[in-house]
UniProtKB/TrEMBL annotation:
Residues 1-23 form the signal peptide. It holds the Pfam family SID-1_RNA_chan. The chain crosses the membrane at residues 276-301, 394-414, 448-466, 487-509, 515-535, 547-565. This is SID1 transmembrane family member 1. The lineage of its organism: Eukaryota, Metazoa, Ecdysozoa, Arthropoda, Hexapoda. It comes from Frieseomelitta varia. Coiled coil: none annotated. The keyword Signal applies. GO terms for molecular function: double-stranded RNA binding; RNA transmembrane transporter activity. It is a multi-pass membrane protein. It is found in: Membrane. Keywords: Glycoprotein, Membrane, Signal, Transmembrane, Transmembrane helix. GO terms for cellular component: lysosome; plasma membrane.
Amino acid sequence: MLSIHKILTVITLMLFNPHQAISSQSLAFSSIVIEANYTIEYQYTINSTVEYVFLYPVSNVTARIEVESNAIIDLPLIVVVRQKREILSWQIPLVVNIYNKTSQTLCSINYNQSGLEEEKEFITVTLSTANCENILFKLNMTKQYDFYISPGGKRNVQISPSQPIYYGYTFPGQTESSSVIVHVQSDSDICMTFSIQNTTCPVFDLERNIQFSGYWQTVNQQGGITVPKQQYPLGFFVVLVVKSDDTDCYGAPSMIPLRNKQVYLTINPSITKHDYVVASGVIVSVIFTFCIAYVVSVVMLKIKKERKIKQELLDQESEQIDEPVPSPLTVQESIPHRSISIEDEDDSSLDEDDIDLMEDALDDKEIIRTKLVLSVCDLARKAPKILRHKSRLYLYYLITVSIFYILPAVQLLLTYQHVLHVTGNQDMCYYNFLCAHPFLSLSDLNHVFSNIGYIMLGFLFIFLTSSREHDEFDREKNKCYGIPQHYGLFYAMGTALIMEGILSGSYHVCPNRSNFQFDTSFMYIITVLCMIKIYQTRHPDINARASVTFAMLAFIIFVELLGVLNDLQTRCPTWV
């Protein structure tokens, strides 16, 4: 059979290229089969005329193969590993940074079983090359007894682009925690990727295919992924792969020649559901109790104030009944004395000879300036109804802007979260992974939940504003003291605080640079509204128009957009 193959090969070469026809003797090719043993290092010479086949008996323990050769990149050494349901192949040296030593973890027989038992199974390792000259290779296969990590277990490993590694984890049968945190830490700045994959074969443990399965994350010094038990009930693999350059971490390739990275891998149980519910309940209870206590105190003070006013009115009525009715002459004599005392007390520049004293001056706005004592409220030229309407426009504009701003933002961020779960790309969102606690479809519920304080305090602020607006005593008091109250501004400030909580929570659904402005837009609105209110405290008639104010805010957010689009090196001053 071999001679027939040689004759056909010679005939083919003579037909297509007769000048390069070679003799059948130079086409001699042989395969050397060796029944290999674990932990024994095999070292041989190989060329294009020979092929080595090593047969390792299948074991229940996970195996790891290591191959080293002095082959060149143009004529590499080809390594093929055949298992029952999986075939792996690679070349030495690797094209990535030209590594002459490679290591691979083989998928365990526990995940490679097909249900049919055979008498004897082997892991077949085949080595071949197209190089006519002799090259050396070393082959060693060992059993990895520390493949499975126990809860709280640690691993200290050294990896490189040519020597990836992965470990297995199985959830205990009875445990209080329903999830674990996979923590990766290193003192080196070399960029790497670690992935959480299901316990199936093949395992994607190369740089070119690690993103094909499960969840993956790019890390330089520290990273973590929370893995829920309900998503991986049979356990999972933790895959560690060093990248060929640091572009994904720093935006530019690194000049580090040897990309060996020391990694510390730890898997710890996460907090239990009971602890999570207790912690969340305590926070909600504290905020809710504060708001309820504040509301109750405001209501009690209001009731106490009303009772005090009623008591003063009753005392005044009783005093008027007991006192004799003054004569007209007494009234005329008392009026100048009253004006002098008020003038001395308030240092008023008004002269009572220049105005007419009229009893209805407090009721008729047209003649309000005939009062002896003027307040800022009396100096307003616009009617209170007009000022109230202009102030309310801030609230109406804010509600309209909020609806058209929040709905697309929430839709976009929920879409990001869906894409994260579908692709497994955790680089899309910049979570604090070691503190993130997933819940349902949210990857980080606690940072979304933490914004509930903004919402509750916003409602509290609106309640206080409404309580003060409808207080008749404060309303009468404001006519004699202070300025016209623009309650629409206060309502807008409270509403902006609520919207800040909603948008900040939406931003933390999937935080990244492209949606950072969702978290900051209403911060600008709250700041501008506070500045307008401060200016209004001494300018009763002069106030910025709501339409002009929101147009200015639109320009500010546009400038912030420029900062988002620019690179880190050319970032606008808005981000500083």
